[in-house]
């Protein structure tokens, strides 16, 4: 296989010029660039990526720590990252954890080993004290608010969004409101949901609280459990539009009318919610992901709040 010295000799240029062409350096004349590219094509030369990365001192690759890859909310965050990574000629490596703390730290160590230029954490399982040391090796950005000065964040005010959603339901005459959620109390969003509920309606009755809901199927089962209570709720706040869609489907199966018999509100303004006319709290997660990538690119540690929206449709 040809090497960079042979390319330089055949093109009649210096090794430095070949290196500049390989790294898309702008200070190379069109004539010399053309000569080098012609020889590269003739020799079918492929540069050693690790060597190029060492020259650049960057990999042009970032990692996105994501708990699950079949969750609409995390998919939206990743979609936002990919939107701007393509525009900036960066590659993205998806790092699924299933909330395994050791796996998360293993991924963060890729910064120390110079395998990534930065890492975006969409949702974490470790405490900040375990994560912050890795910021010595590259930028770490998260998709939740943190006061730590070493961590940049792109986030939404989830508590405010939940509070506004519950107050809206209360204004519509609902006082017996059920909720579904995903993770347990270790989840910040779960705690914020429960705090907003308590501040609006008081203590949440245990029978109106269903956990481990992520999909349409989970929503259908949650609907079966909630809508067959002796004193069923008059409204349900679901932790995703897919879950809300499953609840809607079960309600239809037992001939309940939405919103006359049961009001339903979801999250994240997903296609199923649009199709079924479900009201939704849109946390604009695509924008959160886009902003997170911008923070990685700029190496800034700013705290950027993305505004949420309440989408009003016919389910309430």
From TrEMBL:
The keyword Transcription regulation applies. Keywords: DNA-binding, Transcription, Transcription regulation. Signal peptide: none annotated. SUPFAM superfamilies: lambda repressor-like DNA-binding domains (SSF47413), Periplasmic binding protein-like I (SSF53822). InterPro entries: HTH_LacI, Lambda_DNA-bd_dom_sf, Peripla_BP/Lac1_sug-bd_dom, Peripla_BP_I. One of its GO terms (molecular function) is transcription cis-regulatory region binding. It holds the Pfam family Peripla_BP_1. Residues 2-56 form the HTH lacI-type domain. This is LacI family transcriptional regulator. It comes from Paenibacillus glacialis.
